[in-house]
Amino acid sequence: MRFLDHIGIAVGSLERRLAFYRALGLEAEAVEEVPSEKLRVAFLPIEGTSIELLEPTAPESPVAAFIAKRGEGLHHICFRVADIRAAMAELRANGFELLADEPRRGAHGSLVCFIHPRSAGGVLVELSQPEG
Ligand code: CO
To answer: Model confidence over 34-71: pLDDT tens digits?
Structure first.
């Protein structure tokens, strides 16, 4: 069993885009800084999953580069895994390319890693192991 943890969307301004999602009946549960990625993120819970809005806090943020190149929009999808290191090893053993050798600290204290879009049919895929 796999869970779709969240869908990540790159935005230029959290406040501006939150107004749109609020009009759809979705509320941010929290706004959090993720210093490792130079981001401010807001999670909007939906039954069984979330929308993650990603606002870059510095020009060198990978999400700032994404927006400069492609504009705001769909950025990644994230699957929840119980053991991220085991999942990474399994992917590597099958020849799939990861963006880092070790998981990094993501939002909510989770451990995360990204799979290169080259290995995933053009989709940036994140894996997330919840804290605890
Ligand atoms: Co994410």
So the answer is: 888 899 999 999 999 999 999 999 999 999 999 999 99
Tell me the CA–centroid distance for residue 26 and ligand 1, in Å: 18
The β-bridge relationship of strands 111-115 and 125-129 is: antiparallel
CA of 104 to the centre of ligand 1 (A): 12
DSSP conformation class of 106: -
Q: Report the C-alpha gap between 54 and 34 in whole angstroms.
A: 10
Residue 69: other Cβ atoms inside 10 A:
7
Q: How many CB atoms lie within 10 A of CB 66?
A: 18
Strands 111-115 and 49-56: unpaired
| Best CA proximity match to 104, nearest among 114, 94, 95 | 114
CA of 121 to the centre of ligand 1 (A): 18
- What is the value of pTM for the model shown? 0.91
Tokens, residue 33: 């800084």
